[in-house]
Amino acid sequence: MADFTAVPPPPSGSAGGVNDAFKDALQRARQIAAKIGGESAQPQSSVPPVSNDYGYGGQKRPLEDGDQPDAKKAAPQNDSFSSQHAALQQQIQQQQQQLQQQQQQLQQQLQQQQQQQQQRSVVTEEYKLPDGMVGFIIGRGGEQISRIQQDSGCKIQIAPDSGGLPERSCMLTGTPESVQTAKRILDQIVEKGRPAPGGGGGGG
After folding, report:
1. Regarding beta strands 155-158 and 123-130, do their DSSP bridges make them parallel or antiparallel, or are they unpaired?
2. Does residue 164 sit in helix, strand or coil?
3. At what angle do helices 176-193 and 143-152 cross, to 10 degrees?
4. 51 within 8 A of 57, measured Cβ to Cβ
């Protein structure tokens, strides 16, 4: 049999070296494990939330809220435009009403002026007719005096009797021109109806 007691024990220096190597290996393993754990934790904290990338989170809300004031501003602008348009239409209507009123006033003034002119231009004059020529001037059924009035534009009113005088009063009413025309026609009729001088005595 072999005698194991004869084998000398390992030197103490060799055991110390093994312990140091084991400690180094353990330290490295811990460092590697810590490094691996830190790297695995870092991506989780560095990865941004999905809601931020695709706009489903709360950061897109401020953008939408920021757009809302523009829409809200557009509504007041439309309201101001519509109010200005309504104000312009109201002004136009007021101006049209004022123009209509002015036209009516002008028409009334013109009518009044025309009436005043007519009233001023109408005159009435007295004209003397020989009493014996009245029937001839009036004509059968008043035909001749009616024709005189139409031709002259003057209204002729003959008194019903002469009151025993040789001439009968006749009133001529119309414009100065129409009165002069009626006088001229009556003078012509009277001249034609008068008997020639001395003609009546020879016939008797």
Report:
1. unpaired
2. coil
3. 140
4. yes
What is the number of residues in the chain?
204
Phi, psi of 55 (to 5 degrees): 80, 15
Terminal-to-terminal C-alpha distance of the chain: 225
Nearest CA-CA partner of 172 in 161, 191, 162, 187: 187
Q: What is the pLDDT of residues 158-171, one digit of tens each?
A: 988 878 888 999 99
Tokens (6 digits) for 28: 């490295």
Those residues with Cβ within 8 angstroms of residue 20's Cβ, 6 or more apart along the chain or in another chain: none
Q: What's the pTM value of the predicted model, to 2 decimals?
A: 0.39
Q: Check whether 156 has a pLDDT greater than 90.
A: yes
What is the CB neighbour count within 10 angstroms for residue 172? Answer: 22
Q: What single letter denotes the amino acid at residue 87?
A: A
CA of residue 135 relative to chain centroid, distance: 70
